């Protein structure tokens, strides 16, 4: 602990920031790799993504550790405390994005040995939207850019609409040919995972807004001031 | 804030505890009500559950607020800090249990106007298991009982196995009669939600173990000591 005490507070916050950045990049890379493995029906690549989730989990664990240590050794107040609180929440959201990417990869393993993946185009489009939202949410956090964060939140609506359309398409596909039921069911869950990634991107965006403005943005969180100032 | 300063620290921790207790009871009650509405195909009851999720979200918001205030005004250390940290994590898990219960209710709304719910017995059994795990995890937290918490974690394996069995059964059911595809797809997601509730119960159990023992239990969290002592 001694090393931490002599470190400046800013250094500790920068370290947390760097950890979040690394964790975010890793989770988004996991999503890209999972989708790539799914499309190419590459079992080995999908298995690597599943194994790679441990690294994301380890980073969340490290961040939790560092946050506890920072809270114990410093007494952050106002915006500093919001930073630390938001870091904890964001790390939990990134961890879930990593989990959801790993789950896409798991379904990629199941689909690897079957016929070509149905509706591959629609699933890819959804994944691109989800990946963009996650990247933009993380960028808005890294830049502490509240306006950019709010834009991410708005775009999640488009992802939800794309998800609903794909969901219906998959149901129709299954009804037309019951032999596709198992594959399409896995794709339904892949689609759901992608839609959930958008929700986590939205959470990250809202946490960013909270840090910048001292309160959660309206509508979803009803603008209740939390330790503003 | 003045009121808080004169309050004893123990009172503040008790308040957080009471909030978690209330939030946990509410989320589990939401799950019970969602399943009841699903089984009885009662649209109005399902809609009430969906609306009721706001109360769970509001409690998470209140807990986040109280945790920030406690961190700002006190400087909790060691076990006290772990308590506060675990409270934050547990409130996030309960919030997700509430979300998942509301999602079960949403699917209950879709299924309310159709034919009788297929495989109702299997879904009910899964919900009972998930509800038991959530209740036991919350009880182990309320009692700060590490051993009881560890038992919850072990029982999540049984829930996962029941989920996998039901998943296969639903796929077979759909293949036999494609007219059931839409209803069964919603039930697949209901089953998935119930399986996820078990994961959140496990998280709550692990957080309990962490508070009692100063480190996360092995295997899933690799026993790394976090501010033990």
UniProtKB/TrEMBL annotation, chains A, B:
Its main location: cytoplasm. It is found in: Cytoplasm. Pfam families: PhoU. One of its GO terms (cellular component) is cytoplasm. Homodimer. Belongs to the PhoU family. This is Phosphate-specific transport system accessory protein PhoU. It comes from Arenimonas composti TR7-09 = DSM 18010.
């Amino acid at each position: 602990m001694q090393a931490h005490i002599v470190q400046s507070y800013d250094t500790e916050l920068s370290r947390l920031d760097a950890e979040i950045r690394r964790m975010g990049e890793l989770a988004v890379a996991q999503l890209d790799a999972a989708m790539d493995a799914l499309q190419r029906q590459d079992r080995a690549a999908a298995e690597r993504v599943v194994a790679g989730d441990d690294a994301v989990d380890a980073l969340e664990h490290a961040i939790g550790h560092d946050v506890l240590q920072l809270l114990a050794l410093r007494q952050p107040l106002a915006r500093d405390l919001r930073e630390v609180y938001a870091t904890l929440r964001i790390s939990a959201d990134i961890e879930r994005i990593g989990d959801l990417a790993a789950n896409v990869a798991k379904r990629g393993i199941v689909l690897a040995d079957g016929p070509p993946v149905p509706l591959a185009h629609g699933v890819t489009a959804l994944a691109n939207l989800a990946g963009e939202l996650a990247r933009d949410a993380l960028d808005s956090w890294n830049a502490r850019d509240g306006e950019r964060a709010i834009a991410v939140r708005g775009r999640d609506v488009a992802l939800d609409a794309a998800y609903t359309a794909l969901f219906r398409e998959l149901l129709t596909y299954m009804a037309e040919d019951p032999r596709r039921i198992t594959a399409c069911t896995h794709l339904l869950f892949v689609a759901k995972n992608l839609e959930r990634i958008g929700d986590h991107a939205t959470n990250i965006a809202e946490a960013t807004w909270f840090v910048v403005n001292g309160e959660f943005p309206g509508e979803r969180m009803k603008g209740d001031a939390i330790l503003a100032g």
